[in-house]
Structure formats: C-alpha cells, structure tokens
Specification:
- The radius of gyration is 25 Å and the shape is rod-shaped.
- It is about 55% helix and about 0% strand.
- The longest helix has 18 residues.
- It contains 7 helices and no strands.
- By secondary structure, it is mainly alpha-helical.
- The two termini are about 40 Å apart.
- The mean pLDDT is about 85.
- The protein has 2 domains: about 55 residues, no CATH class; about 60 residues.
Length: about 150
C-alpha cells in the first residue's frame, strides 16, 4: 500500500522531470506554483498541491491528465532475491522451534522440500537457500504453525 509520503516522493520526482522536460526556468516554475497553489516553493506543498501541479504539468505536456488527478506509475514488482522493505530474518527462538519440530516429525521427503512447496510463496520458493535462519519472521511463523499441525497428527 502506498503511503502519502511515498506518493509525495513520486509526485516530486514527476514534477521536476516534467519541469526539466518542458525546460522551465526556476522563476517561471515558482510563478507557476504560486498561480496554482498560492505557494511559490515546493517545500510548502501538501499532497493536494503536488497532485494539482503535477496533473496540470502533465496536461500542459499533452499527457492526458487533469489537474488534481495526475497519472503516476506504481512501483515495479520486486526482483527475485530482493528482500521486501522491513524484511527481518527469523529469530533464534523461531529457528530453535523449527529445528525441534523437524526432529519430531517422520519425513517421507526432506523438511526443506516440504516447506518450499507448501509454505513459501512462489516468488520465494526459487530464492530460499534451505537454511532456517534465512526465513523471514513471517515465513518462520507460518513454518512453525504448519509443523505444529503435522506434529499433532
């Protein structure tokens, strides 16, 4: 989910890219800002101000947007092997719990193969190296729950 801060950053980058593309001087840019928002400097812009000026610049540049509703691209999907923002590795107690549960279960195939095929997301399946320590905290929690269920039956 995109936050207001993320959106402001995207709008700011789009704004300055459009200003460069349209070869706006700093003086003209400040007058443009003041005309549309009442604020000459972008330092004072709110999210509404950013939406307004970027939409207007896109419209002036023939990009089919309207003031207040600019067209901003979403972030590209993560690349394989990139850790998502806020990624934290499994804690030592989670790893110890997983190892203890793995020892209690009789396996037809390896525990790692089970986790890779049944617990991890398809994107993560190809990048996980098989070490319990490299699971994220959320993945480790899901693994523990699945192994606990298996150990009961």
């Amino acid at each position: 989910m995109t936050t207001a801060v993320d959106r402001k950053g995207k709008l700011r980058r789009a704004y300055f890219a459009l200003c460069r593309q349209m070869q706006m001087s700093e003086t003209y840019r400040h007058r443009f800002n003041e005309h549309w928002t009442g604020k000459p400097s972008t330092k004072d812009f709110t999210l509404i101000d950013w939406n307004l000026v970027v939409g207007r610049l896109q419209q002036m540049n023939g990009q089919g947007a309207t003031p207040g509703k600019p067209r901003i691209r979403s972030d590209p999907p993560p690349k394989l092997g990139d850790d998502p923002p806020g990624f934290e590795f499994a804690t030592s107690s989670q790893v110890a719990t997983i190892e203890a549960l793995v020892e209690r279960i009789i396996w037809r195939r390896s525990a790692g193969a089970f986790v890779r095929s049944r617990v991890l997301s398809p994107l993560r399946q190809g990048t996980w190296d098989g070490a319990w320590e490299t699971l994220s905290r959320a993945e480790a929690t899901a693994v523990i729950l699945a192994l606990q269920k298996m150990a009961r039956h």
